[in-house]
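[09:14] KT: can someone run the structure on this one? pasting the chain below
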Amino acid sequence: MKFCARLQNSNNMLYFCRLMTTILDGKALAISLRGKVKEEVAALLAEGHRAPHLAAILVGEDGASQTYVASKEKDCEFVGFQSTVHQLPADTTEEALLSLIDTINNNENIDGLIVQLPVPKHINANKIIESINPAIDVDGFHTVNVGKLTINEDTYISATPFGVLVLLEEYGIETRGKHCVVIGRSNIVGRPMSILMSQGGRDATVTICHRYTTDVAAHTKIADIVIVAVGLPGFLRADMVKEGATVIDVGITRVEADNITGYKLKGDVDYDSVKEKCSAITPVPGGVGPMTRYGLLHNTLKSYKKKLEL
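[09:31] RB: done, structure tokens below
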């Protein structure tokens, strides 16, 4: 969207235009969507049903992971979910962790289970993910759920890609026939994001860039939509983005700062410069992060309703 105005000097009329950038406010949208989940849960409880239940396992004392799990607990409390957090010491054995997961898998009153990543190096993360019952794998990481996503069957979409899709839809960002560049190919964000953007209903033409892409800017400069998830603060600069593009910043990294916490959060996009050039952009924080947390609530409620056969 462009804002145009006119200025008059002594000789003639001059026109100027500047791009009006839409800030994709994931925080405000997530608050609204959580409110709808809360209403739905309240109605289910009024009918005599139990509350949906999300369980989380946190191994070790990673600060970012602890903060994220605490936020999920608050979200559950707000919408009326029951939540259980199993916080285990960093030296927990793989066998002990697998045993706990097995116990949760067999608890009919638990609708969602997440194991917060990363886990300590002595634990095989893939083995842990594959041990989770796909029916309660609300992170959408299990091979069964990834496979269903790939062939466009109903499944649990990983929370972050799901949150991005909802943001694009709710803000009316056109994707059909658009060129979308996804920077990053992780199994958590980049790879599922690329698949989802190309599927029917979104119908974008997708390019994936990664660490071995020789000239990332050559691709992003012609992209209508850029989704960046590489964990490199300020990676995407204004000179890498074409005028009017939509930019989705999935990255969030703690960088040193002279403040009370000693750090600040920064995304993969050089926000201040890119904002002046694009038509829509997500801030960090307050963009994709809150929508990721909403995605987890959505998937847990979905699992719960399947059990009720609603």
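[09:33] KT: thanks! The first helix runs from residue 26 to 46.
[09:34] RB: yep, looked fine to me
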